[in-house]
Amino acid sequence: MAPPPWNTTEITSQLTRGIRRRSLLAGVAALGAAGAVGATGGCSRVDVTGATGGGHLLEDLRSKGTVRMGIASEPPYASINSKGELTGEAPAVAKTIFQRLGIKHFEPVPVEFGALVPGLHSFQYDVIVAGMFINKARCQAVLFSDPDYESKDAFLVPKGNPKKIKDYPDIAEQGLRMGTGIGYAEIDYAVGNGVKRGTIQTYGDQIAGMEALEAGRIDAFAGTALTMIEALKTGQHPKVEMTAPFTPKVDGKLQRDGGGYGFRIGETRLRDAFNRELHKMKKSGELLRIAKPYGFTEEFMTDLTAKELCNK
């Protein structure tokens, strides 16, 4: 079989450089739909829908009355609870918006996070509703709404925060032992602030990180604040607490990130209608009210746009 016309090594490199809160699988989510990323290293976007004039999916969804939502199980963004119900901040916001667009019924389609983009391209669902981080590599394969939240980093530390850790420079200056998730962007944030890459220990998730903290193998576990808030809700690690959320800096530049909703390239009419409702909710404060039960507070609200994040 002839090799594909795109440079998969370069695509993988671009995608993994765009990793944020998720592991390596998240960064390469679009690789399964690499044809949509485009040839010569992902520099162009290809409309896999055949949509013209902004697409007709909005009208089709209104006619059917149902929208299929691709989700991945990651609280507090989206998940199926123990009762088999769709829950999380992203579905709660999306349901409100789609109802206002005249679509009353919702069909969740649970998949692994790494399968979200390929599933969108193969028409398994109509929109990605998973709090997906927006970055330059993913924007070659997905048409994103503006973000509905902004991510912040934080540290899990022993109760009382004995090392007084607030930011990555504290780890570097004190020569502390830091843990984080496999493939997390927090590794680059730490290295960018002087932490030696070889000293950073990686773990499968926040729970494993808390166990390492309690065992004294690390002094802090770095990750995104929202996932840590969720992990601490279990109450199984009373000797661990979370530091105040913050936006990391590298070389003096704030590393701002946000997540939103993903549509197929070409479906701009649906994306634009979705954005209009989202902006109304931001302005009125309704977005925060909907998101608050899932651990989102004012500091996670954002004025970032998809265009800014796609061009980072």
TrEMBL record:
It comes from the Bacteria. Pfam families: SBP_bac_3. Keywords: Signal. Residues 66-298 form the Solute-binding protein family 3/N-terminal domain. This is Ectoine/hydroxyectoine ABC transporter substrate-binding protein EhuB.
